[in-house]
Structure formats: C-alpha cells, structure tokens
Amino acid sequence: MIREYKTIEEVSGPLMLVKQVEGVKYDELGEIELPNGEIRRCRVLEVNGRNVLVQLFESSAGINLANSKVRFTGHGVQLPVSSNMLGRVFNGMGEPIDGGARIIPEKSLDINGTPINPAARYYPSEFIQTGISTIDGLNTLVRGQKLPIFSGAGLPHANLAAQIARQAKVRNSDSKFAVVFAAVGITFEEADFFISDFKKTGAIDRTVLFINLASDPAIERISTPRMALTAAEYLAFECDMHVLVIMTDITNYAEALREVSAARKEVPGRRGYPGYLYTDLATMYERAGRKMGSEGSITMIPILTMPEDDKTHPIPDLTGYITEGQIILSREMYRKGYMPPVDVLPSLSRLKDKGIGDGKTREDHANTMNQLFASYARGKEAKELMVVLGDSALTPVDRLYAEFADAFEEKYINQGFYENRSIEETLDIGWQLLSILPRSEMKRIKPELLQKYWPKN
Amino acid sequence: MIEGKILKVSGPLVVAEGMREANMFDVVRVGEKRLIGEIIEMHGDRASIQVYEETAGIGRGDRVVSSEFPLSVELGPGLIGNIYDGIQRPLEAMVKKVGANITKGIDEPSLDREKVWHFEAALAFGDTVVGGDVLGTVKETDIISHKIMVAPNKKGTIVELRSGDYRVTDRIGKIKLPDGTMEEITLMQKWPVRVARPYSQKLPPVEPMITGQRPIDALFPIAKGGTACVPGPFGSGKTVVQHQLAKWSDVDLVVYIGCGERGNEMTDVLREFPELTDPKTGKTLMERTVLIANTSDMPVAAREASIYTGITIAEYYRDMGYSVAVIADSTSRWAEALREMSGRLEEMPGEEGYPAYLTSRLAQFYERAGKVICLGSDGREGALSAIGAVSPQGGDISEPVTQATLRIVKVFWGLDASLAYRRHFPAINWLNSYSLYRDRLDGWFSEHISKDWSDVVGRCLKTLQLEAELDEIVKLVGVDALSADDRLTLEVARSIREDFLQQNAFDSVDSYTTLKKQYEMMNLIHYFEDKARAAVKEGVNIQLIADLPVRERIGRAKAAEENRYREEYADIKREIDSELKRLIDEKTDD
User: Fold this and answer.
1) I need a labelling partner for B72 at 20 to 30 A (CA). Which of A96, B10, B88, B396 fits?
2) Does A49 touch chain B (CB under 8 A)?
C-alpha cells in the first residue's frame, strides 16, 4: 500500500524535508502532488529516523507545505526502455516531447545502473574511423572508449561532435549502429544544430535524444545523462547495437550537482564542488565499454566547456582522470582559422595502442604518430624561440622543424568540418609532412618502415 | 548475536541503534540483502557503519547484524592469478554467478572452496613450532611455492600433520597449544586488514628492486623493501609506469591495486598479463600477480578498504620469505574515499576537506613496507616494496595528498605533463625527482654492475642539470651565443634525454633494459662526449659534430637486442672514432 504524507516541513532550494514517514528507503523515487493536481518528482537523499530529505527534480515553485502531498513509489528512478526509442525525443526526465505516443516499455531500468565487473569487460580495441586526421592519426578512437572533448566558451565543439557522429564507422563491419544524444542545459540553438545535422544526414532515425535545455530546471540535469546512458545500455547490451553517446555539456551537470551539495551544506572540495564529484562523474563515464555476453558497445563522447579555458579546473581535471584520454580544443588554433581547432599536443587517446597497427590501421601508424608528435612539439618550441630571437638564432635543423610545424597545422590539422579522410590518406599526409625534415631525424621510425614509406621525391 | 536497527542512511554511511555490544571495526551485514559494512564510529548504542555496497533501497528499521569479526582477508593458496574487489570478493567467480554487472549482496568466498591442493608437510609429529614456522608447502603456481605457516600469534607442539590433497578448509593437522588446547590447522588463515602482520625485525634496504626502466634504475632507483610515489597530472603516463613496474620488477610477487581507477585499465592487466612472460622465470606474469580492482564506479567505501586488503595479502607472501611489490593506483582516490566518509561523519575537515588524520593513515600504509626478518625459527628474509601513484588535482603537487605522501616515501618519480606532450616517456622529470636510496645502493651496483656505476650516473645527472642552466641562457640570447663546449653539452644532454631516458613501453626490445646494457648505453654517450670534446679542442666546428651520421646510430642503440648489443656498441664506438678523426683531419688540411 502506498501512503501519502502531508508532512512537508521545509522546502529550501532543491531540497525538501518530509517528516513522520514510515518505511521509506534511501534513493527511492517520490512523487509530490501539488494542490492543483500537478505531479512533480523527487528522490530520497537521506533517511534520518522518521524524517527524509529529498531532492526535487523540478522547480519548487508552487509547492505548498499545507496542501501538497508526497508519496513514495517503492523503487528508484526508472526509465522505461524499448527499441522503439530510436528516432524519438525525450525531455531530461525521459518523457517523450516530440508529440508522439508514450513508449510501450519492454522493461523499466534503474537509471543509476550497476558497475560493470572489470573481470567481465572486453578491452576496447576496434578502430573507429572518424575521418578526422587529428583523431584517427594521433588520438585514435576505439569502440567502447570514453573520449571527452574539452572545449571553451565559443569554440566549435558542436561541429566537431557532429562531424564525428556523421563520419564515424568501423571498417569491414556492418553491425547495427545508434546514437544517443543527451543535451544537458545547453541552449535551444545548440540543440537545434545537432538535431538538424542528424536530420540532414538521416541519422535521426537511429538516434535517441534526451533534451534538457538551459531554460529547463537545473536540477533535472542530474538525471538527464543517466537517462541517456540507461537507454544506451539497453540498446548496446540487450539489443547488441554499437552506440555512440554524445553528452553536452558536462559543466552544466557538475554545476547542478554543486547546487544540491551547497543546499545540503556539505563540506566542499575544490571550487565549491562536492568532494564526491570524481566518484559521481565516474559512475557515468564508466558505463561506457564492452562486456561479456553482449555484442554491443557504448562509445562515449562527453563534451565540456572549461571555465576560462583552464584545464586544471575541477571538472576537466577530474574528467581527465576518469576518461581514456581527451581531445582539447584550442582558442589559438581557432583564431588562426584552423578547423577543427584541435590542440594536438595535450590531446591524448589512452586506448590507441591496441587499436592501431597492422591489420587494424596500417603497420606504420604507431611509429609515424610518435614521430609527428615529437616533431610538432620541437617545431613549436623552435617557433617560440624564433619569436624571441629571430630565425637567425635557430640551428638549420630547428628552422626546418619550425617550417614543419606550420605545414602540419595548415595541412594536417586544418581539414575543415566536412572533409572525410580515410586512415590511409591521413597517414600519407603525415609522411609528406615528415619529409620536410631530414631523414636522419626520424629516430622514432623503424628503418624498415622508413625504407618502405619515406616519400621518394 | 548482536543485532540493531537502522536509524539513518546517507549514501554509504548508515547509522544503526541497539549496537552497544558491537566492537569497533567489526563487520556487519546491513538490510535484507545482507550488504557488507564495517563499524567506524560508536556513540552510545549507535554505530556508524560504512557500507561497502550501494545502499539504495535501505531504510529506517532495516536489520543490522554484527559478525563480531573485524574486516579480514582469507590467506591461503589460490590468491595468485585472482582478481578481487576492495573487500576481497573474487570478481571472476562473481561474473559466473551473477553476470557482467556487480549486483548487491553477493556472498562468495575469497578462496575457492572446492579446489584441491597438494600439501607437502615439512615438519612432523612432536616438532615444536612458533608463529611463522613453515609447516609445509603447496605448489600454488609454477613459480610460487606457497608456504603454510603457523599463525603469527600461536605456538605449541605438532600432534598431527599429514601430506596429502586438501581443500583450503580441510584440516591438515593439529597443534597442541601451551595451555593444552588443540588448534586445528587448515591451508587457509584469516587476518584483519587494518592490522599489520608482525615480523621479527626490520632491516635497512640495501638491494635495488630492478625494474628494467632506465630512468628509474639508473637515476632514481628504489630498493627492495622501499617506498616510492609517482605523482603526475592526467595524461602524463602514471598508469603505464605502474604497469611497467608490475611487469618487469624483479620481485617474486606483485599485488596490483586498482583503487578508484578506470575499469578498462584493470581489464587490460587481466587480459595482458597471462600472455606476457616474466623474463626471470619464463612463466606468465599472471603466475606472480594478485589483482585488487575497485574501479571508480564501484562503491566508494570498498575503495578505502582496497588498499589494506592489498597490502595484507602482500605481507602474507612477504612472511613466506618472498620479495613482494605492492603497486597502488591511485592513493589519491583512496584519500578521496576517506574524505567522503569523513564528510558524511560530519568531522571537522583539515586541508581541502580532507580529514585531519590523512597523513597518519598514509604513513601507516607506507610503513607496512620494508625488508624484514620474518617470524619463525629459520630467520628467512622477506621484502615488501610499496609504490603508490598520486593524482594531484590539476597536476599541482602542493595539494595535501602529494605533500603528505612526500613526507613518508623515499623515492619521488615526478611525472611532467610538458614532457608527455613532447612524447618523452616515461615522463619522469629528471630535475625534480629524487631517490634517497641512491647512496645506500651504490655498494650493490659497484659490486654487481661496475665499480664506477655511481660516477657514470652522476655524470648524466650533472649534464642534465647543466643543460637546464644553459637553456635559460639560450632562451635569452640564442644558441649562437654559446661557446662550442657549451653547445656540445647541450647536444650530449639531448642524447641522454632522447637516446637513454626515453623508453618505449610498447616496443618489445625497449620495454625492458638490463642493468649491464643501461650501463653500456650511458658509457656510449659519454664515449661520444669525450671524443667530441677533444675534437672541439682541435677546433672542429660544433655543427659538423652535431650532424655526424653516427649520432643516428647512437639514437638507435636502445633497439639493439640483449645478445648483440656489445658488438653493436663496440662498432658504434669505432665509427665515432673514424668520423671524428675525419673531421679533425679535414680541419688540419685547410
């Protein structure tokens, strides 16, 4: 029997205290019925004797201590799932907002999921060709990886994410593919950019969208990514699909989390974010991967904007410690007009080593990748020195490195958002650029590969 | 039976009343699903319990039952090659039992109860024994002979002990204790994780733990029984360094603790190690590895316990007389788990919200390392080395966890993001890293490798230091302003950095370098420097020396295989001689 309580004692920010309850469990979903019949949802944050502290998922406006009723549902927050979700649009709480009918659920899943047993994971090693040189060639993405994009305000991360969604494919594979897109507190325009891009390419039919816009309640953002991931897990691990999850913007999510934490008067960690931000983010990011007993996979591309372009800000910092690498966008490259403006040197894919090489991409991939990185780093240093002292201060070799760095940015990085390069094209451009340098500088390339691939002209 | 009722639930913290009889740090079972928890605070009859599993669905009035035992690990044959979570539940057995995800309330014994081991008795009826004495052995893997020992706090006379095939819980014999009671012996014993296992005496560490990693062995070595930390921002290659140590260290056993880190990294170890062979024994690395995996998405309280679970298992093998390494990735996540529990207990926070007891807890952990004379009458020696990764926020090592760690450990391998961006791996910064064992290990190196080992290493460090000073000048006035001698120093320093310190973990030859080869590599670079300096003195243009073709061969010297590097290096030296001679001859011809 579900009891109703009219004992709301306190409402403050996103929190509400209900007294004299019986049998309520931690993390249970509750429903608040307003005097006008409207239903809002909340979840139990703390059980303390007969009092419970709940967190609202929507605005507290209109809640009336005397006449509002609360009932608890006996289960956690759930998302009804079905393979018919493809092509549909939901709000941040998982309700359809595209005017279509409600989902007829095949089952209801707890949105918090359960941790994947590390002994049951498959190590991600299938190369995904995104058609973008800076990713395929240097920071290779593999199926089941979580690779975030660290962006800054005003940088074109949306274009890059859309380009990945548009072009990503696994070669020699025709398995089922789906995109789950979670908009977390972004503007209508940005969400609309993604939706119209998906429509233009026809991808919309295999996409599930969860939309929480900037104008929607901030508190709802805490569940939006989890809703999206629950849908993704269902499609990947029960329908055996390869799912690409794009979540934007994690910064908004973390701010919503901070809001709840501050309202609870918790001891803050750095910059007012709660001490458990790392664990909280990890319970989302770690849901990516591949596991035994299923053909499908979840590849995750979370997008976050770094406040003040600061990589050491807690949100990008903690994200970087959990995810398997990061693609960092650079304002400097953007100003130069190089698109996508990827800052190559601090970008990284941790899983690249098992996804590249003979049989996956090409035998020369690992060697040229290291050589390009090292040469570009030295070229940039040479250029910095040149700014201070003029180019006469450089050794002849360093002058070549500086030339290489310019050409690398111009030809390799700057490919635009609509050019789709095969991995062979990317590798060949790499060789062309390396041939600017003396062959004796190719210390990171094995002699036999140098023999085979060094441009003849 | 001590039984209480829940009053409060807040995340992993549960408060129960009616627990006056319970002991601090006893394990309790919470709720219908019998979640595992541990009492961490008592107020009157109220106990605060940290729960090692997700607490969703727990509410007021649910039952809490005390087991009346502290949190313990099961020690016995079957540990090696296994992967456990933070409270020693076997993850592979759990996959078989409940599938790919970890659900709540799984009860699975740590050691396989059905597996039969062959026990070979070493003592017999009538022998008197003290704690730590070896009763006999079980061949656990091809390389580890598992010694079955008398529990540390027991002594008496053997009244029964038979070789034979046993399961871990079967009785293998009996000991008559001094008070006349009989103590049954099994292959398995239990030990509380928060209590260090006793030893008879601690010894100073004097032997290096050889890792095959050049920047570590040559410049900043760690001793067997020593402690080290690896701090670095994300992307600086901490995990690769830790994996390399787990793979190549010349120890008998490695306990690898994945504490709040990525799931895929543990999977990587789990899938890769069975396929790699240990250079020392020729067997797979899994036969000397125990894995503890409490990944970042697994419950936070169990993360706090994982460090203790790991080091207790390591101590147990140390007690058998083995050299063991504990590798913990990452102690920052462990500290965060402490912080989270402390916050929920509403304790007064210290720096950055960490509890005031952070430093003492860290010190307790690292102090469990050391070279020791084990308990038992045979006086065998064992060593336990502890290596912890630290993940400072934003790469800023002034934060509390790094600073607290640095006050305890003796070796500091500081990883540097700017080196990583240049793909200089391992990105150990040679200017701020240190090893306090260097002096103490000099004796060993000069005896086993070469008399002038410490001079050769010192010369490398000095060149690198000089380079840093010269770089400051170059930044101001350009490289042309330097004397030829200084420019040569820069070239040599670059050679040390690129041709010696950089080591590719993913290359089959370069991944591991023997000490002898490391020595010869340093010598090769110094040989070039000596000859080049003489040529500079003769007036040869430094640019011509820098551009010599032989320098590319020095750069590739690391790729020379173990069985033929001597000839290769001798040949390179001949080429250095002839090329420099040519330059000097051309000079005198003008």
Assistant:
1) B10
2) yes
